[in-house]
Amino acid sequence: MRRWRRSAEARAEARSRELDVILDAGSADPPGEGPFAAERAAAVALARALPLPDDVPTQPLVTVRAGLAARRASRQAAHARARVSLRISSAAALGLVAARAGKRTVVAEVSEQERLSGLFGRRALGHREGRLAGRLHGISIDPVKAKEEWLRYQLRSSALAGLLGGSRIFQYLTAAAPGVDELVTVGKVWDLAQLERHVGGTRSYDLAIVDAPSTGHGIALLRAPRTYAQIARVGPIAKQANRIHEFIADPRCTAVVAVALPEEMPVNETIELRTNLRADMGIEVETTIVNGVLPDRLAKREAKKLARLDGRVSAAVRAAVTTALSEHGRAVEQREEIERLRREAGEPLIQLPFLYQPDLGPAEVEQLSRELEKGL
Q1: Which pLDDT band holds residue 288 (cuts at 50, 70, 90)?
Q2: Tens of pLDDT along 99-151?
Q3: In what order do the strands lie in the sheet with 207-211?
Q4: For the chain, how far is it from start to end, CA to CA, in angstroms?
Q5: Which of 4, 95, 181, 207 is geometrically suited to a Cys-Cys bond with 143, CB 3.0 to 4.6 A?
């Protein structure tokens, strides 16, 4: 079977012309020769809305009819997996942009999630700083180990820190006290951003990026130092917590970047984040990244023509048309949510494309970083 090996631009142009011919004809027998004319129409319609990566040649047309359902299921599964990685992939892409600009950068993820290393094809980092690519480093913060480091810093003695940290009473008290994990976690991030490191580490960094939790937990993380400073009032805990809070609240030192999916609930949460950060901590969101934006490859005229075909086409073409219209509908809904978020934010948004890959790796993070760099 013939496979297309033309450039991406030529392939897109050819598919566009061919789809117009099929739509204008409005029948189950589009122009063309061979026994697979209907299947060819399905392939064209499907490829227009759901393009393959440029380096993957077009599949033989004979497999289209049997492969439609499997291909749709595979893409849905890929989309579900990619949603999980949108926030950490944005942080990794931002880190790459900074590293390319010559800044020694570290990206920190919290709660031992260990997703960052996989994006760069590296083994798990754990609670230690490791190089990811060039001048970019990473760490997966473990609250328990961060607590041990904090004790060593406060007590100025590893032996005393080990004795106290191993005490059951101390473990019980810290487990019962709300917000301790958040405090030591944000304290670790603060240390990563210092020119003179206080807790175990190597050289200083020019920029520290933290993949903070989603809206509610993220605000709790940023609020923890101020909360403990108010509770303690005096002493080393209050002094340290105040230093961290002042660093977070100072726009010359810290910037908050929101990351959202172009969907109703994530957009609502991002709007809520902006409002709560401003009201509760006096912090403004610097910018918002909208990740996972689908391409809208059908014009309104084309979508209407596809919808009118309905029962006048074969089952294979109908399946392709249904998939194309569904993807088009999702793209339209996304753009409505992006516009709503833009109105609420009052500033331009940075949009990153949805990548049609089952898993993200170094090449995909590089691609996202190049797109991100254009919007900064």
Answers
A1: very high
A2: 999 999 999 998 777 889 999 999 889 898 999 999 999 999 998 888 888 77
A3: 130-133, 136-140, 105-109, 207-211
A4: 45
A5: 181
As a whole number of angstroms, the distance between CA 277 and CA 165 comes to 33
Which residue's structure tokens are 């391409």? Answer: 295
Query: Hey, what are 152's tokens?
Result: 């060593």
The residue extents of the domains of the chain are 77-296+329-375
Q: 324: which residues sit within 8 A by CB, 6+ positions away?
A: 45, 46, 48, 49, 50, 298, 306
- Judged against a pLDDT cut of 50, whether residue 256 lies above it is answered with yes
DSSP 135: T
Q: What angle, 0 to 180 degrees and rounded to 10, lies between the N-to-C axes of helices 300-309 and 8-25?
A: 50
Instruction: Give the Cα separation of 13 and 11 in Å (integer).
Output: 5
Among the four given CATH numbers 3.40.50.300, 3.30.1330.10, 3.40.50.10490, 3.30.70.1280, the one describing domain 77-296+329-375:
3.40.50.300
Q: Where are the alpha helices (DSSP H) in the chain?
A: 8-25, 37-49, 64-100, 116-119, 143-155, 158-165, 168-176, 180-192, 215-232, 236-249, 264-281, 300-309, 315-345, 362-375
